[in-house]
Specification:
The protein has about 650 residues and is of the alpha+beta class. The protein has 5 domains: about 250 residues; about 55 residues, no CATH class; about 130 residues, Band 7 domain (Tetrahydropterin Synthase, Chain A); about 60 residues; about 60 residues, no CATH class. Helix content is about 55%, strand content about 10%. It contains 20 helices and 9 strands. A hairpin with a 2-residue loop joins strand 2 and strand 3. Helix 16 packs across helix 18. The longest helix has about 70 residues. The C terminus is likely disordered.
Length: about 650
């Protein structure tokens, strides 16, 4: 073994692979960490996906370099016993530790799992670990919905660094490609992995150089180029898993575990079948050149391919027309016949072809379509109403079209502006002539209908007012517009049939809606104020009328009462005069007694009798202790003090 070149150069090759693998691993780690932090602050940036793809390619190369380093280490250890026997046996020397810090670090990491490593092997675990890191990083950065953005000066710096690293790897790849197989058998597979990393770095530089707000493909390419190192990592992981089922013999020289068939396909000119043939022969001992079936297939390939091509070309003359469609058959570029649904036969392409035409499919077309009105969203019946169903005047609608109409009065402005949503339900005519006209006379049927309808709407709305459009004219407006648009389409021989015209909404512009609502609110407020003042005036009038009626009724009652009292007094006076004239002094005495009885009804009486006091002396009574009589106004009831004896 000491005479074989690959064993002689194993130590130098191992040191070289260790330095390059360590440098690339550091660069890949910096790329992953940078992409992670950029993704935290700017998740929609191109940098996380770009750095993840490039770092994944470098890690795949690191996995291949470390796998080749394990092979050089085995050769170096296998060469040491042969060198020790060639030395002078009389001189005893201490064993020299040929391992560096990288080998000691790996030995410390591997010492913890020494039992598992003896069964599986450190190269297998490290290769599976690198492949797992690559797949995990690509999975975290995978996002095909990234928007196009402008990167600025950072894009130029990143592209320059990518190209500089790609140039360094290109120099390394050329050195590996020039290595003889006897001196370094693993050089060619490593060169193939290096090509993979170079391709990813160059693609990343192109993405950075052409990135812009109007270019979406650089962002998509930055994400999709991670597929290449991802497939290579998946293959390395599969190789690591399959290596568990192969027996490990420390006495046999190991083969390179970190090789990739996918990376082997990255050559010019591409020879995928030859690479597959070599892989089957080297791995499983299968030589496809010795199988007669493959030899026969190789000789019969061109005749069979020609026959299949001829049959395929002849089958282009068989056309399947769907049930909801028709087909216009062109022979040498001239329309000959309109095919119905089913299988139809004609000349093969390009001698004959069939143009598809609709057969009775009904469409709905709005006269005006905004930016977000190109697609139709389906809403469930149980869910909330879609935004297109919003008919409030203060909201702008996608399908609204502004239109100038006549003013309502001559003393106001000469025109007004309204927003309208007019829709047409149409289809291509069911006749063959209509199908031919729709195919050859119209390049874009919706645009033709929309332009024709716009011209008709300008003519129809020019003589109508807002009150008319919102009232009685709206009923007949749809029919008149539909007839006018159909007449223009027939004049143009478009082959389109208007089935219905629907006026979805007519209202003032959304900008004037708030002002219109303010005017309505002011008018309603004024009307409410007038009604409130009229109610207050009516209430005051009714109160005044009520007070006047009460005062009038009270005056009438008082007057009638006074009149009745006067009449009663007059009748009493007349009766008393007649009674006096008839009875004389007796009537006066009767009246006197009546008045006296009335006055003495509630008075305290003192009855005096002349028979009191037998000696002839009349009693003396002090009248000061007695109250006045009941009727002090009458002179007949007054008793002078001291006059009663």
């Amino acid at each position: 073994m000491a005479e074989w070149p690959r064993f002689q150069q194993a130590q130098s090759q191992g040191r070289r692979l260790k330095r390059i693998a360590f440098a690339l691993a550091v660069l890949a780690g910096l790329g992953l960490v940078t992409g992670f932090f950029v993704g935290l602050f700017s998740p929609q940036s191109i940098w996380p996906a770009l750095l993840a793809s490039q770092s994944a390619a470098l890690l795949v190369l690191v996995a291949g370099l470390q796998s080749a380093w394990w092979v050089t280490q085995w050769r170096n250890r296998a060469l040491l016993p042969a060198l020790s026997t060639a030395q002078i046996p009389t001189v005893e020397r201490e064993p020299i530790d040929q391992s560096g810090w990288y080998e000691r670090l790996l030995e410390r990491i591997s010492a913890r799992w020494i039992g598992l490593l003896k069964q599986i092997g450190a190269p297998t675990l490290w290769l599976a670990g690198w492949a797992g890191v690559v797949l995990l990083s690509l999975e975290q950065a995978w996002n095909l919905a990234l928007p196009a953005t402008t990167l600025g000066a950072s894009a130029s710096v990143g592209a320059a660094l990518s190209l500089l690293l790609a140039f360094g790897l290109l120099v390394f790849e050329r050195q590996l490609a020039q290595q003889p197989t006897l001196e370094w058998p693993e050089a060619l597979p490593l060169a193939q992995l290096t090509r993979l990393a170079i391709i990813v770095l160059v693609l990343g530089a192109l993405c950075l150089l052409f990135a812009g707000e109007s270019s979406v493909w650089p962002v998509r390419l930055a994400v999709l180029m991670g597929v290449l190192p991802g497939l290579a990592a998946a293959e390395l992981l599969l190789r690591a898993v399959l290596s568990l089922f192969s027996p490990r013999r420390d006495s046999l020289e190991p083969t390179l575990l970190g090789r990739s068939v996918i990376a082997d396909l990255l050559r010019w000119p591409p020879q995928p079948l030859l690479a597959l043939q070599h892989e089957l022969h080297n791995r499983f001992g299968i030589d496809l050149r010795q199988i007669w079936a493959f030899s026969y297939m190789r000789r019969a390939f061109l005749p069979v391919l020609a026959l299949v091509s001829l049959v395929g070309w002849l089958l282009t003359g068989v056309h399947e027309v769907p049930l909801q469609g028709r087909g216009i058959y062109e022979r040498f570029g001239k329309p000959v016949e309109v095919f119905g649904p089913g299988l139809q036969f004609g000349l093969p392409w390009p001698l004959g072809r069939v143009l598809n035409v609709e057969n009775g499919i009904v469409h709905e077309l709005a006269t005006s379509v905004g930016e977000s009105g190109a697609g139709t969203e389906t809403e469930s019946a149980e869910g909330p109403a879609p935004a297109i169903a919003n008919r409030l005047w203060d909201a702008s609608h996608v399908n609204d079209k502004s239109q100038v109409i006549a003013s309502r009065r001559a003393d106001q402005q000469s025109f007004q502006i309204v927003n309208m949503d007019v829709r047409f339900v149409y289809r291509i005519g069911l006749t063959d002539a209509a199908a031919l006209a729709a195919t050859y006379n119209s390049a874009d049927i919706p645009t033709l209908i929309r332009s024709t309808a716009s011209r008709v709407l300008v003519h129809e709305f020019a003589s109508r007012t807002l009150d008319g459009l919102l009232g009685a004219d709206r009923v007949s407006l749809a029919d008149e517009i539909g007839r006018a648009v159909q007449a223009d389409l027939q004049r143009l021989d478009s082959g389109v049939e208007i089935l219905a015209t629907v006026v979805e909404a007519i209202h003032p512009p959304a900008g004037a809606a708030n002002a219109y609502h303010g005017v309505q609110a002011a008018q309603i407020g004024a009307q409410a104020l007038i009604a409130r003042e009229r109610g207050a005036a009516a209430e005051q009038t009714n109160q005044a009328q009520l007070q006047a009626s009460i005062a009038h009724d009270q005056a009438q009652a008082t007057a009638r009462e006074i009149n009745a009292t006067a009449q009663a007094s007059d009748l009493r006076f007349t009766a008393e005069r007649k009674a006096y004239a008839t009875a004389g002094h007796a009537f006066v005495l009767e009246q006197y007694l009546s008045q006296l009885s009335r006055g003495l009804g509630s008075a305290k009486l003192l009855i005096l009798d002349h028979r009191l006091g037998g000696s002839g002396n009349a009693p003396t009574i002090d009248l000061r202790t007695f109250t006045l009589p009941a009727d002090p106004a009458s002179p007949r009831n007054l008793v002078q003090p001291g006059a009663a004896h």
